[in-house]
Design brief:
Elements: H1 2-21, H2 26-33, H3 37-50, H4 60-79, H5 85-95, H6 103-112, H7 128-143, E1 151-160, E2 189-196, E3 205-207, H8 213-224, H9 226-234, E4 240-241, H10 247-250, H11 252-259, E5 263-264, H12 278-289, H13 297-309, H14 313-321, H15 323-332
Parallel strand pairs: 1-4, 4-5
Antiparallel strand pairs: 1-2, 2-3
Helix pairs in contact: 1-2, 1-3, 2-3, 5-6, 7-15, 12-13
Length: about 350
């Protein structure tokens, strides 16, 4: 009699999880099985957190084995970030003779251990001289207590109409048009420029062709009205313009034009996109673009402008103020890349 009751309870729990996997709500499951919604939520949470439906506590030996398995999975995952769940499952079976180590179990434990399958983080490769210049730059601005609210950050960036890294949901052996991405020899890409500070944001500039000194001054600096906008907000010569060390940015003609109208944050350390907060804006735009499917270049440009125009002010303010933390991190890391640390 007692055994039948245990089996009935176990079947009920499996029905809860089965219904949950079929996308039924907790309320619908409770009504269907004639049990409380609280009970449904409890077993769903237990399944998600522990991967089991037993109400009994694990014995000490079983718990120790589980901890050893988790440690092994952590060690192997960190040792080889490209190791698949199938490969790791085979390694686990070799290590733990009597332990159940299916591919699904390995995947669940990896998720439980907070591992996610994502593209690797990117950081620039820096020479020793570049590290020294970055650290010197950071020390100078820390000692001078630079007011980063008054700094206008600027940069160019390429955006691709058909990024190759996008992912879609598809079944094996599906061959209709919707599962294919037409690959062109030369992907369509658009070069944009933008600038922002704690209190201002320019229009997004679409750049056609290569950028030289003339294009930079006429089509970007003048067309964006960045100097006029900053003067209106901060007052003439009461703000600082940031740009990287690209040749059109630091040519004699460009610097002569800029120095007559504003202060320039010079020199910006080479190979230091991680120091520029505008890179975070490009990343935000990139992620939003992946959620849409622009059909042609015109739609693509309009979408880029729309995303840029709708970035909230709170984001701009936080990014502007993040410079203080970035400077501190560069000093702490002795000039090394700070990507992923802020």
């Amino acid at each position: 009699m007692l055994e039948n009751q245990v089996n009935t309870k176990q079947i009920l729990r499996f029905k809860i999880i089965e219904s949950y996997n079929q996308r039924y709500s907790t309320r619908q499951i409770a009504e269907y099985l004639n049990i409380s919604q609280r009970q449904v939520v409890y077993w769903i949470q237990k399944w998600n957190n522990e991967g089991r439906l037993s109400s009994k506590k694990r014995g000490r030996k079983k718990k120790e084995k589980s901890e050893q398995l988790e440690q092994f999975i952590t060690q192997k995952t960190i040792g080889n970030r490209n190791l698949s769940c199938k490969e790791l499952s085979l390694l686990c079976k070799e290590q733990f003779q009597n332990e159940c180590c299916s591919t699904t179990t390995v995947y669940r434990l990896r998720k439980q251990l907070k591992f996610d399958y994502k593209p690797p983080k990117i950081r620039q490769c820096l020479t020793e001289l570049q590290k020294i210049k970055r650290e010197s730059f950071a020390y100078d601005h820390q000692s001078n207590e630079t007011n980063w609210k008054n700094v206008v950050f600027s940069d160019e960036s390429w955006f691709y109409l058909n990024p190759t890294r996008k992912k879609i949901w598809r079944r094996r052996n599906e061959n209709d048009d919707s599962v294919f991405d037409e690959k062109e020899k030369f992907s369509k890409k658009i070069l944009i420029w933008g600038a922002f500070s704690h209190d201002i944001q320019t229009d997004l500039i679409i750049i056609k062709g290569n950028v030289n000194t003339e294009v930079y001054l006429e089509e970007i600096i003048k067309k964006s009205r960045v100097i006029e906008l900053a003067n209106e907000e901060y007052g003439s010569l009461h703000w600082i313009f940031q740009q990287d060390g690209a040749r059109p940015h630091i040519s004699k003609k460009t610097m002569k034009y800029l120095n007559r109208r504003c202060m320039v944050l010079d020199p910006w350390p080479p190979n230091s996109p991680d120091l520029n907060p505008i890179e975070n804006l490009w990343s935000i735009m990139d992620k939003k673009l992946l959620k849409t499917l622009p059909t042609n270049e015109h739609n693509f440009i309009e979408l880029l402008k729309n995303i840029w125009d709708n970035i909230c002010w709170e984001t701009l303010e936080k990014l502007s103020l993040s410079m203080k933390k970035r400077i501190e991190l560069v000093i702490q890391r002795e000039g090394e890349s700070i990507n992923g640390f802020y």
